């Protein structure tokens, strides 16, 4: 039996093209879905100058289903899975999913040092909550006030303290994922010792949302350090700074951060063009020992991580590039970046810079990426991995 779909068209301007319009269910914005012959609804009042009712006759209502908006912000899991199911059924792509409304702390028992959260929560909000029990999730991505757990999992983001604490993969115990067809799955668990089956959580982390949308995650935690301190030293040349970084890597003082940068921030705006920053954290005695050894190498000026915020918060800046190299090749990689702002993790060989030459393309196993993509998302509902 034919289905009749009726909509209200504000200030119409119908032409012979017979444009069919559908409204978004929440924003009420109009967008075309199909060009069809129209049969006007006889119930429309002829005196209505601002509104015109029309109907579309179809033998298959699913054929004329409204398209799924490419970017959407679900209010709950039911809405998210419904949208994915609709997109999967119609073969439409979802470009992005904003999870800001899914931001609850689901479960947290400080004595267990494990927390489960919805991934729309910001890093700052989560760390503030954990700090009440003198605990934290040891990751420090840029701009924590705006960066969510979903962002970190999506791109495997990290910060200066990665040198000591690793990445989010090292702290994730389990997660709940919405697959491209709308199915919800769980992988991993809520305990530290969990080795059953394949570790799919590590596969989803860093996949840029190309395989599924991570909606919940469980992490192990660690106590806040008793003390954390940063010191800096300026250098007149890149060569001197790189050599000092190599010396620091060899003596191994258990830094939590070892960064080389050329960002000018107050009160160091008039200092040397290159700066090495060391971070120490832990028990008071351990930090004091590290500071004494660093002082022998000329690192006596107090430092901080303000350069990290200044670099990533720059508005209207050049495109951000990332380069991963061996730490021993730091000088070779930085040499072509003359005049380009950069922050380099001198302890593990990760360089971020704005503008300048594009990083060389990596020889990645793209055929393997494609096989995994075909397994999880054969209809390509979610974006492809940007490798």
Short précis:
This protein is α+β, with helices and mostly antiparallel strands and 387 residues long.
Can you describe what's shown?
The chain has 387 residues and is an alpha+beta fold. It has 3 domains: 3-67, no CATH class; 96-224, 2-Layer Sandwich (Uridine Diphospho-n-acetylenolpyruvylglucosamine Reductase, domain 3), CATH 3.30.465; 227-354, Vanillyl-alcohol Oxidase, Chain A, domain 3. 23% of the residues lie in helices and 27% in strands. The chain is built from 10 helices and 21 strands. The chain has helices at 77-90, 123-131, 149-155, 162-165, 200-204, 238-251, 284-296, 306-312, 330-334, 366-376, and strands spanning 3-10, 19-23, 30-35, 39-40, 51-58, 71-72, 96-97, 105-109, 114-118, 135-136, 172-178, 184-188, 213-220, 222-223, 227-235, 257-261, 274-282, 301-302, 320-324, 342-345, 350-354. The strands form 6 sheets. The protein has a 7-stranded antiparallel beta sheet with strand order 18-15-17-16-20-21-19. Strand 20 and strand 21 (350-354) form a beta hairpin. It is globular. Residues 1-65 have low confidence and may be disordered.
Identify low-pLDDT runs: 1-65
Number of domains: 3
CATH class of the largest domain: Alpha Beta
The oligomeric status of these chains comes to single chain
The name of the CATH topology of the largest domain is Uridine Diphospho-n-acetylenolpyruvylglucosamine Reductase, domain 3
Give me the CATH architecture of the largest domain, please: 2-Layer Sandwich
Number of helices: 10
Structural class: alpha+beta
DSSP E strands, number: 21
Major sheet summary line: 7 strands, antiparallel
Percent of residues in β-strands: 25-35%
Give the strand order, joined by hyphens, for the main sheet. Answer: 18-15-17-16-20-21-19
What portion of residues is helical?
Answer: 10-25%
Radius of gyration: 27 Å
Q: Give the overall form.
A: globular
Mean pLDDT: 83
Distance between the termini: 49 Å
């Amino acid at each position: 039996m034919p289905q009749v779909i009726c909509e209200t068209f504000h200030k119409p301007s119908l032409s012979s093209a017979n444009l069919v319009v559908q409204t978004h269910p929440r924003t009420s914005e109009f967008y075309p879905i199909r060009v069809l012959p129209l049969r006007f609804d006889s119930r429309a009042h002829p005196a209505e100058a601002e509104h015109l009712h029309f109907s579309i006759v179809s033998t298959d209502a699913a054929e004329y289903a409204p398209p799924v908006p490419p970017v959407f912000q679900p209010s709950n899991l039911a809405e998210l899975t419904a949208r994915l199911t609709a997109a999967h059924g119609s073969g439409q792509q979802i470009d992005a999913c904003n999870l800001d409304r899914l931001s609850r702390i689901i479960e947290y028992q400080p004595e267990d040092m494990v927390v489960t959260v919805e991934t729309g929560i910001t890093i700052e909000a989560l760390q503030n909550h954990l700090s009440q029990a003198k605990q934290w999730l040891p990751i420090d991505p840029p701009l924590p006030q705006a960066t969510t757990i979903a962002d970190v999992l999506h791109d495997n983001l990290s910060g200066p303290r990665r040198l000591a604490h690793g990445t989010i993969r090292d702290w994730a115990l389990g997660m709940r994922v919405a697959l491209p067809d709308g199915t919800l799955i769980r992988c991993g668990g809520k305990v530290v010792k969990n080795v059953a089956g394949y570790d799919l959580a590590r596969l989803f982390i860093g996949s840029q949302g190309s395989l599924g949308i991570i909606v919940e995650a469980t992490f192990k935690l660690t106590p806040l350090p008793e003390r954390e301190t940063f010191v800096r030293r300026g250098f007149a040349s890149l060569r001197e700074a790189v050599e000092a970084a190599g010396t620091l890597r060899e003596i191994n003082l258990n830094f939590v951060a070892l960064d080389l940068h050329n960002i000018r921030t107050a009160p160091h705006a008039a200092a040397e063009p290159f700066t090495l920053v060391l971070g120490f954290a832990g028990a008071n005695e351990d930090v004091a020992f590290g500071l004494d050894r660093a002082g022998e190498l000329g690192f006596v000026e107090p430092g901080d991580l303000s350069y990290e915020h200044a670099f990533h918060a720059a508005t209207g800046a050049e495109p951000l590039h990332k380069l991963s190299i061996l730490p021993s090749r730091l000088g070779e990689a930085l040499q072509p970046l003359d005049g380009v702002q950069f922050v380099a993790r001198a302890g593990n060989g990760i360089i971020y810079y704005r503008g300048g030459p594009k990083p060389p393309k990596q020889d990645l196993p793209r055929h393997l990426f494609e096989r995994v993509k075909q397994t999880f998302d054969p209809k390509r509902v979610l974006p492809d991995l940007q490798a």
